[in-house]
Structures are given as structure tokens and as C-alpha cells.
Amino acid sequence: MNAYVRPPSTKRVFVSHYRPNRIRLGLGVLWVLTLAMAFGAAMSGGVPFVWFLVAGAASYYVWPVLHGEQALRLRAEGVTIDGVGRAPWEAVSRIRSRDIVVDGRRITQLALTLAAPAAMAIVGDKPKPHRKLQMQIARVVDDKAIIINLSDLDDSPDDVIRAAEYFLGQRVESQRAIVA
């Protein structure tokens, strides 16, 4: 039997942002290399514009991270995921976490199984089409689930899972040590 009970309507909110540290460092290195390559291209009679185009595209991709946008918002009404939209808790039939190891790095994911197709379960304003070209922490899988990558957030995966348990009113199922 489930020991958790959904909390009464509350104004509490859990917000997590993208973790920008590695992204900012990588983008800084990319821009330094871009300037060096563009200078080399200009000196040899090449086209330096191409290098700025590549660096500009990379900057556009990580724009939400650079500007500290909210990546995940949990509250009594449901979950809001940057780049996906808002799903009320009633639209979530199951929630589970899993750890996968990719190239020696542990990645924690939160999987929300939807009670209805994503087009019906995700309510409110939909993300703008250009958001698909930018970095996101989540993706809709087979129109039945939303997979959220918790490892790219500034809060620990355990904090996010505890917040999800609080707002959903049930335990998050856990799968550990999956190697990919």
C-alpha cells in the first residue's frame, strides 16, 4: 500500500535551473578557438565568417543554460519542464528514477509515464518551435513518457526526487546501476 498522500494545496514550489559551469567553460574555449581559426583563415585568404557561424550556432544551442533559465518547476498543480511544457500530476500515472552509466559518468534520469498521449497530457503554452534547436533536459518518448535528465540541473538528483515525491504524494520507483 502506498504510504504517501498527496499534500493539500500548497504554495510551495521547487525550482531547479540548468547547471552552467561546464557549459560556460566549454563555450569559452570554443570562442577562443573560433577567434584563432578565424584569424588564421583571414591571414591565409580564407573565409573567417564560417568559424563565427559555428560558434554562434553552439552559443544558440546552449542559450537557456547561459541565461540561467528555469529547467524544472515542481508544484502542487504539476510539473513544468523547459522545452516540453506543463503536465498536471493527474496526467502522470507513474514516476520512476534510474541511473545509467555512460562513458564512466553516472546520469540520473526521472521518467514520467503519462496517463494520456503527450499532446493531451501536456497543457498550457507549448514551447516555441525554435526551442527544439536548443539544449533541453527532457524529451518525450513514444508520446507516452517524459524522460528528464537530472544530472544537468543545479540541484542534486536526490533533492529533485524528494520534491517529486512530496508533490506527487507517492514514492518514486528506483532502478539503479544500468550500464549503457
Q: How many beta-strand segments? A: 9
Beginning-to-end CA distance, first to last residue: 33 Å
Assign a percent range to the helix content: 25-40%
Oligomer: single chain
Our Rg estimate from Cα atoms comes to 20 Å
Report mean pLDDT, rounded to a whole number: 82
Shape: elongated
The number of distinct helices, counting runs of at least 4 residues, comes to 5
Strand order of the largest sheet: 7-8-6-5-9
Low-confidence stretches: none
Largest sheet: 5 strands, mixed
Series of secondary-structure elements, N-terminal to C-terminal: EHHHEEEEEHEEHE
Structural class: alpha+beta
Estimate the strand proportion: 25-35%
Q: How would you portray this structure in words?
A:
A hairpin with a 2-residue loop joins strand 5 (92-102) and strand 6 (105-114). The mean pLDDT is 82. The two termini are 33 Å apart. This protein has five helices and nine strands; from the N terminus they run E-H-H-H-E-E-E-E-E-H-E-E-H-E. With 180 residues, the protein is of the alpha+beta class. The chain has helices at 21-43, 49-61, 63-66, 118-121, 157-168, and strands at 13-17, 70-75, 78-81, 85-88, 92-102, 105-114, 138-141, 145-149, 173-179. Helix 1 (21-43) runs antiparallel to helix 2 (49-61).
